[in-house]
Amino acid sequence: MTDINKNDVLTAEDGMARCWWGHEPLDYRIYHDEEWGRPVSDDIRLFEKMCLEGFQAGLSWLTILRKRDNFRAAFAGFDYHKVAAFDDDDILCLLQNPGIIRHRGKIEATIHNAHRALEIVDEFGSLARYVWSWEPKSREPGIGKNDANAPVPSVTKTSQLLSKDLKQRGWKFFGPTTAYAFMQAMGLVNDHMQGCSIRAQVERLRREFTPPC
């Protein structure tokens, strides 16, 4: 797919037009059609995505996606109450688990961030309430020379502010680019491209969705 323009929408053999990245392989197609951009308010799923976005740093999302079930098994389904209780023995076990990314810094950050998630829940009532307080009021342009005119940005003002706020709260491995990828995936914005068959479905779900308050 190296010759594909990232502004493209591609039509597959099933007759559906998709964002260029969701065309193939099948793992991406299923994720694009059934998950990406659909609003999520479940705390466990939100925490999972925040962690997996951190693990993705320096890697492709496809690598993480194909290991997601392994990650779920290794990190107690990303129940942050349970992850926060992980100790040094658990870290050593995770470092020996070939089914996940065995990066000590990212593993320790996941456990550390579970404690920070508990703090957010104590303050806001749920992780979802905190996350959805960052939903942009309107479409935001990208920041930076490569993003300024891009149809799908990689960093926005809100993602910068979200990343900064989480950093101040002690979170790790959640920079502005990671924050925007999280916002896209969890439905805080709809970045399915114009012409994508899924875009209207996601927009309808966003209209029907009531953010936690």
From TrEMBL:
GO terms for biological process: base-excision repair. Signal peptide: none annotated. Keywords: Metal-binding, Zinc. Transmembrane segments: none annotated. It comes from the Bacteria. Zn(2+) binds at residues 19, 32, 192, 196. It holds the Pfam family Adenine_glyco. This is DNA-3-methyladenine glycosylase I. It comes from Desulfuromusa kysingii.
